[in-house]
Amino acid sequence: MESILELYDVCKVFNGFALQNVSFSLKKGYIMGFIGPNGAGKSTTIRCIMDLVHIDSGNIKLFGVDYHKNLKALKQRVGFVYDQDVFFEDLSVEKNKKIISLFYNTWDDDIFYRYANEFNIPLTKPVKHLSKGTKMKFALAIALSHHAELIIMDEPTTGLDPVFRKELLDILKDIIKDKDKAIFFSTHITTDLEQIADFITFILDGKILFCKQTEELLKQYVIITGPLNLKEVVQASQPISFKETSLGFEAFFETSRATEIISKYNLSFKKPSLEEIMYYLVKSNNNK
């Protein structure tokens, strides 16, 4: 299946921070979650993809084409939903739409008004009077109304209440039914990604730790708990992370390394959430 977004060894030194050999790819028909702690490089990577900052080395391809070749035409095929106000705040939704539509050759008013109705976006209200959730829906309606094939979203659910977040995730599930589209979704709210992401790419300190199928990733690790009298035995099995708790210990393992010790000592275990996986991997890397 054709890749819609590809990064190869992308490097960028930016405001005292460096992206280092960032590589991953996203194929049509899939949603990729892009995770990492604050300051890990998520937004910088997205700015590089959108050519808002120029990379120092490496290569980026959009729709199989080097992104610096006819970037203007390539951007026509990308919908960008950004976690900042990018509209004319004093103008109405309708007037904003009229201005923005001029920049897209494939703008489709019928699609815009369909989404505006579906999302309950008030066309006559000034943008500055919209809630954060409605602004996000407006941005998504804009992204979808020029037949974008790649939707790039930078922290779209930050600050949204649970109802708005659930609505947005349902919208994304509906979008991706079109197998010619793909969604690249950067967020630190990992519970959202567990519901919709096919792949997870994890960036830390400007480096990609992994890019894996979500289902595979959630099976890869296990959290073991037990009494402190087994502390040394468990630590000898080299967990990725280990901490003492008020009830004993909690150890984070690769599942393949933990199976024998769980069985031998009849230890309690659970499969970690995506948030717990990120927490323990960040903690482990910080302790190196």
Characterise the protein shown here.
- With about 290 residues, this protein is of the alpha/beta class.
- The chain folds into two domains: about 5-215, Rossmann fold, CATH 3.40.50; about 220-285.
- It has helices spanning about 40-50, 70-75, 95-100, 110-120, 130-145, 160-175, 190-195, 215-220, 230-235, 255-265, 275-285; strands at about 5-15, 15-25, 30-35, 55-60, 65, 80, 150-155, 180-185, 200-205, 205-215, 220-225, 240-245, 250-255, 270.
- The strands form three sheets. It has a six-stranded mixed beta sheet with strand order 6-7-8-3-9-10, sandwiched between helices. It has a four-stranded antiparallel beta sheet with strand order 2-1-4-5, covered by helices on one side. Strands 12-13-11-14 form a four-stranded antiparallel beta sheet.
- A hairpin with a 2-residue loop joins strand 12 and strand 13.
- Helix 4 (about 110-120) runs antiparallel to helix 5 (about 130-145).
SS content category = alpha/beta
Largest sheet: 6 strands, mixed
SS field, number of helical segments: 11
Instruction: Give the C-alpha Rg.
Output: 22 Å
Spatial separation of the terminal alpha carbons: 38 Å
Biggest sheet strand line-up: 6-7-8-3-9-10
CATH fold node name of the largest domain: Rossmann fold
CATH superfamily of the largest domain: P-loop containing nucleotide triphosphate hydrolases
> What is the level-2 CATH architecture name of the largest domain?
3-Layer(aba) Sandwich
GO molecular function: ATP binding; ATP hydrolysis activity
Protein name: ABC-type multidrug transport system, ATPase component
Keywords: ATP-binding, Nucleotide-binding, Transport
Domain ABC transporter: 5-230
